[in-house]
Amino acid sequence: MEYKWITQNQCIRILPVSTRAIGLNIRILAADLSRLDIFPGVEDFSDRIYKLTNALYRISLLQFDLKLAGAMEGQHSKNFDNHGFEDIFVPESYRHALEGMGAGFAPLIKILSGIGFFKKGGMSFLPKHPRLLKGSCSPIYVRFSNLRYVVTQLSRNSRNQNPIRRKFYKYNPIPGARWDFSTTKTHSVRGRKLNPAPVLENPNDIMPDNYSINLLRDDIALVADCIEKIGSKYPQYISSRGIDFKANGLISQIVSTSIAELRCPTYPTTGKPETIVTEYHPFWAPIILSDEEFCLGIWYLMGETGDDKKSLVAPWNNNLRSYEAGIAEEHDEYVSEFHPGFFNFLMTT
User: Fold this and answer.
1) pLDDT digits (tens, 9 = 90+) for 310-323
2) Backbone φ, ψ for residue 58 (5° rounding)
3) In a domain, 3, yes or no
4) DSSP 3-state of 189
């Protein structure tokens, strides 16, 4: 008897991801930590939280990249169209340093662990960074590889940069950004008052030029020291399990929204940082999710759209992230708010 083997090629849908949840959650964390008695008697407490904020942002964006790289390495199909998406490269020395980290802040561990390849109803999904147009400075697509370019552009006090700075500030995801409003004038166009276009004051604190493995190790040491001190008094903020960079992700990644009016306000030079600015906003998904899956998807905030045509090589007009792909009868039920109070949910689930 002759046997014939039939091989079925797995078709993978690529899911473009945005990154603002990283910075927004770090800012909520910084606002919380600044109000706790973590370092009693330490005079530079505020400065320590500020440095932690910036170090944690750099590390978390790198962890985001490494999770995407792990998702790509963990699936074996080549049956997908990669046009318009970035190939992720994380230097080996960075990989070893990140993989050696243990405990982390619970909300960030929760979000980063949710990133990865997943299957649902016979379909497979692979999250990837969309490829950006040259010169793009989009607040929803800030990643480690373009962070230095972004902060450099935002620190240029040029009239030509006003539209870029105005839009970025409106949706600012950088938790440690300090803005100079003295150089910006509030004015109107055709009777419509424009948002301010402040200049970024601290680009080098957010992303130093020529960032290296030695600076990454310094960042990791700073974060580890803070985790040890915070965990001893406030263990609810800490997760001991770390991140499995090769593990599959969660279906909650599929939740999408238009770019939401969320913002990290300017980080003060003295005093305690405020939490994020937020409002109610619609979210949707192309498949029905449980309430918990959808709540997590809102907080992951990986599916922001609306900045595509000016930022991306291949805009996502008719893909899984589009409003049209959502389930129309579910939209009204999914009008929700990305609210700092939900932070507690991420620490306890």
Assistant:
1) 787 776 554 777 76
2) -65, -45
3) no
4) strand
Q: How many domains does the chain have?
A: 1
Per-residue burial over 323-347, b if 16 or more Cβ lie within 10 Å, else e, is eebbeeeeeeebebebbbebbeebb
Per-residue model confidence as pLDDT tens digits over 124-148: 899 999 999 888 899 999 999 999 9
Give the domain extent around 178.
12-348
Look up residue 340 and give its two tokens: 């700092």
Query: Could you give the CA distance from residue 280 to residue 231 in angstroms, rounded to a whole number?
Result: 32
% helix, strand, coil for the chain, step of 5: 40, 15, 45
Cα distance between residue 323 and residue 284, in whole Å: 7
User: Two tokens at 248?
Assistant: 């599959």
Does the residue 5 lie in any domain? no
Q: What is the pTM of this model?
A: 0.89
| Cβ atoms of residues 160 and 127 within 8 Å | no
Place of tokens 């903020």: 237
Q: Is the pLDDT of residue 7 over 50?
A: no
Characterize the bridge pairing of strands 257-258 and 238-239: unpaired
Q: Say if residues 175 and 50 touch (Cβ distance below 8 Å).
A: no
Q: Is 2 a member of any domain? A: no
What is the token pair recorded at 214? 């030695």
Q: Judging by beta carbons within 10 Å of its beta carbon (0-12, 13-18, 19+), is residue 7 exposed, middle or buried?
A: exposed
